[in-house]
Amino acid sequence: MTLAQRQEDMIASINAIGDCLEQYSYLIMQSARLPVMSDEDRREAYLVPGCQSKVWMKISGHDGHLHLEMDSDTLIIRGILALFIELLEGCSVEEVYQTELTLLEQTELAATFTSDRDLGVRSILFQIKQTVAN
Amino acid sequence: MNIVRIRRDFPVLNVTVHGRPLIYLDNAATMQMPAPVMDTIVHHYRNANSSVHRGVHTLSQKTTNAMEHARAKIASYLGAQHNHEIIFTSGTTDAINLAAQSFSQVFLHPDDEIVVSAMEHHSNLIPWQEACSRTGARLRIIPVTEDGQLDMVQYKKIVTEKTVLVAVTWVSNVLGTVNPIADIIQLAHQNGAFVLIDGAQAVKMGTVNVSALDCDFFAFSGHKLGAITGIGVLYGKESLLEQLPPVSFGGGMVNQVDFCSSTYGTLPLKFEAGTPNYAGAISLGAALDYLQTLGRVEIAIREHSLLAQTEQLISELPELHVLGRPELRSGCISFYGDGVHPYDLGALLDAQGIATRTGHLCAQPLLNALGLTSVIRISPAFYNTDLELLRLQEGLKTALARLKGVI
Question: Distance between CA atoms of B264 and B258, rounded to whole angstroms?
Fold first, then answer.
């Protein structure tokens, strides 16, 4: 399945979850799947500029494929990061570059994660796109 | 108080958030606007809108009269001696910046000292840091005790003949602590220092009388009283304001202007360069009218009761810890949870329609001193109901249950 198709499936399944409370709860559950970054990696250099929650992100590539390590100090954001990793980890840099990442915009979560309450989350996708563009 | 009837004055309280009825508990940030204030603003724009002062035409005179009428209401509300002791600003932050910039030009010299407290909002800290760095003066800090009160023993040691100004908040925007402002003012004055009160959180707390307090400056914001955002007030004693230079220059604040020099107008105009926010001022006058109609003391009693209930309901949840145990708390209460990030808690409450505030609340030094980086704050207003507070507790239980499975 292409990245675009998998993203569509993910959007559909999130939107099927129900109201905002249930969606947050789903994200909190997802957060348990995200490995905790080492203290060494949780440093300033990997901090994504944001607002209330801290987000750390390491982006690297192996043989043209994206490798992501991410963490946050809040569970809801960790849940979002877990979804990003599920979607993007191991994808070809070319495919990530070609695909429009609309996960946030097309779900109920948009209101939460596209406001200035969490600029950090918005800038995660921006940084990923920028990295693959280079 | 007839809360059901009062709530009808606040249309926004009827909105739904994420499909649930709004429970608005972020009043320490912004209080909602009652319909009579909205009506006043609309009436102004429908009937009188024009630039104030120096206009010979009727609309300008109407607007000028309305703004000056509002100034008189505010002077009366604060117990000021003169209407011209009320300077319109854009808010508390702007008021304190105005005071700091102007005051420091005349009164601050190298090795002078300014005293602030460890529980200040950044707005009553950074302007003084800047004033000190410009003038070579020093900033002294009144520490906060473990129970969240000002350490008055230390305060007595910190205030000396070197102190030029004491700038403190009357009520903490994080802890809700009501500081012993009369004692603070008295000791400062005994040492020949001026006193600025950050009244942002205190102005709604019953009766405020700047003349009885004998403070030199008092700053507050309109949007915390039901006025439109972007209007605030710096009260200054006439004798002090007369000695202070303007810090903003342009139209409206001058007497004579030529290419070499200009002479400045009298109080309060010399501090109000440019077109003042007359619509804001008028809305603030209307907001004060509204609060006075309900009764300032009645509002204070009602809010005190709601805050006490809030504290009790939060204390019933063992995972949550209330910040501070002040003798008197007003306006707001903050807490944190074991292993719970306030962002998660705040988001899960929002998902249930409950509006609270999370983060450092613009008081990073205080939170650092308490060993925290972020808290969650509840600030009820008189229009909140007892039932809403019970639903807050239920909402917190739901949020904690959802987080517990993962932590």
Answer: 12
**B32-55: pLDDT as tens digits:** 999 999 999 999 999 999 999 877
**C-beta of residue B299 within 8 angstroms of C-beta of residue B382:** yes
Helix, strand and coil in chain A, % to nearest 5: 50, 15, 35
- At B21 the three-state DSSP class reads strand
Give the three-class secondary structure for B91: coil
| B286-338 pLDDT per residue, tens | 999 999 999 999 999 999 999 999 999 999 999 999 999 999 999 999 999 99
Query: Residue B96 and residue B184: Cα distance in Å, rounded?
Result: 18
Task: Give the whole-angstrom CA distance, residue B283 versus residue B226.
Answer: 8
DSSP per residue, B108-145: --TT-EEEEETT--GGGTHHHHHHHHHHT-EEEEE-B-
pLDDT digits (tens, 9 = 90+) for B250-266: 888 888 888 888 888 89
Strand B357-359 to strand B320-322: parallel, antiparallel, or no bridges (unpaired)? unpaired
- Residue B86, beta-bridge partner list: B235
- Give the minimum alpha-carbon distance from A55 to chain B in angstroms, rounded to a whole number: 13
Please name the member of B350, B374, B405 whose beta carbon is closest to the beta carbon of A52.
B374
B341 min Cα distance to partner chain A (Å): 6
Catalytic residues of B: 362
Rg over CA atoms, chain A: 14
Q: Please indicate if any CB of chain B lies within 8 Å of the CB of A110.
A: no
Identify from B20, B341, B361 which residue to disrupt to test chain A contact, counting A C-beta atoms within 10 A and taking the largest count: B341
pLDDT computed for residue B261 by the predictor:
85
Contact B402 A25 (CB under 8 A): yes
A53 with A31: CB under 8 angstroms? no
A19, A32, A74 ranked by CB distance to B19: nearest:
A19
Whether the model clears a pTM of 0.80, i.e. scores above it, the answer is yes
Q: By CA distance, what is A112's nearest residue in B? A: B347
